[in-house]
From TrEMBL:
Pfam families: Amino_oxidase, NAD_binding_8
Function: Probable oxidoreductase that may play a role as regulator of mitochondrial function.
Organism: Vombatus ursinus (Common wombat)
UniProt-listed GO biological process terms: mitochondrion organization
Name assigned to this protein: Pyridine nucleotide-disulfide oxidoreductase domain-containing protein 2
The Amine oxidase domain, residue ranges: 274-565
Keyword Flavoprotein in annotation: yes
Gene: PYROXD2
Amino acid sequence: MNATSQRLGRAFAVSTPLQGRPAPTAAGGPLKPEYDAVIIGAGHNGLIAAAYLQRLGVNTAVLERRHLIGGAAVTEELIPGFKFSRASYLLSLLRPQIYKDLELKKHGLKVYFRNSYSFTPMLEEGIQGKPPRSLLLGTDMAETQKQIAQFSPKDAQVFPKYEMFMNRLASAIDPLLDSSPVDTTAFQHGSLYQRLKALFTLKPLLQAGLILGAQLPQYYQVITGPITKVLDEWFESEPLKATLATDAVIGAMISPCTPGSGYVLLHHVMGDLEGKKGAWGYVEGGMGALSHAIAKAAEAHGANIFTEKPVDKVQVNSNGRIQGVVLKDGTEVRSKLVLSNASPQITFLKLAPQEHLPEEFIKRISRLDTQSPVTKINVAVDKLPNFLAIPNATNGRPLPHHQCSIHLNCEGTQVLHQAFEDATKGIPSHRPMIELCIPSSLDPTLAPPGCHVISLFTQYTPYTMTGGKVWDEQEKNAYADRVFECIEAYAPGFKKSVIGRDILTPPDLERVFGLPGGNIFHGAMSLDQLYFARPLPPYSNYRSPIQGLYLCGSGSHPGGGVMGAAGRNVAQVAFEDFKSM
């Protein structure tokens, strides 16, 4: 066992949770043989879909295979006294209407906002005894400009204009998130009523065009081009460009030089948290507390939520229509609607009967790009990291930079590109991109006094390594040690502070959370797998070739992140179909 895991007389190298947040008790008692709707998986989208359907009077049951709800939005006490947001770890993208409709504050949701949101320390020798430089970005624009001016006065001057430019694009795309994509099939083959109805789905697209106006060509370049090209047109300082570029590649097996990476950046900056545009925050109690607030809202309307109820297959009658699901233990649950919060691959290649799906559809689902670069490492430490760029306070209390997303190995976009290049050769990055977050810097409920939980979102690590290597414990620990060495260079003493760690490589993320290929979005957020094409045309409206079977997870429009839009949108679509049954 790694020596750094042996601190304070405790030694943990966690691969399975010791304890998770308990699931809520099903409001309707034991599992019944029939419901109006069954939802496969209690991820946040599935729970949101359940809440909306139940509000509309559709008797709904949610069936979760794990012992706790939340999907990737979970809190797990991996080490006694330390509560980790084991997969997703920040909140921003949750749709404002969901926040309001489900009264999540009333059901216990509390968010700690980060005033400073990004910290990028440099690896460099200090000048005349001064510490290395760093870049601290926050909500105070004047202070942010002072920080940027260390590297480029020109960039400091232009940064507010860049923010306005990107915010305008985010505002244009925002309406597209809250409705199904345009139903092109209805225009071609639908009845007159269906064609007229489809016309209304054009409204968000028209709104987007009106917002962007004459600048539409410039915005088109942002969405389709590599983010390096976009940022090079605005800025000259590499630390600023690299810091901004992290949002364009995070969670994606792409380089900042990859065409289309601009949209991924936009996807991560379009949040609106409690009315604060672009804000990111930590959920008190970890991300599992968000899932529990949504579950409480669903249960308050009468939804039933069950854990340890893995679904084995969906049942389809001779007319090609859904009639329910069968659990692993053979239990049958009948329903008119089945909504799958699982990935498209699990839903259509494992759960759905293949004889009821078109052969071409099966082929295209199996070819979806699900590459993932991500290894998530959850760490318990007995003190805050002490960065050379901004030394800790003498009293040991967190400083503003501790609450940020801390970007390491981000001195320039070329560093990020080289990390990507390593992975394309089938090897983990030598200098991985690291996003380090310390939620306990704001939330004292997560760790014992004086101690902290740290989330390390790292890339790039290929699912399949070259030379026949596999992600066994030796390889996982070797990679984690490499990450820790990188952190040590910025914050000496970090390795000695480690109490324990939990390492989730792409195969682990797939096994534990059902993420295909370990992809946190259920599939690449590339332009060929978005909007009309998510997961496939013409099935971007959440329906499937099997009548009554719907997708409601991140593999459907508008994609990944703790957004909830897919869950809300599919509930509206499924309810319309339910009324006509």
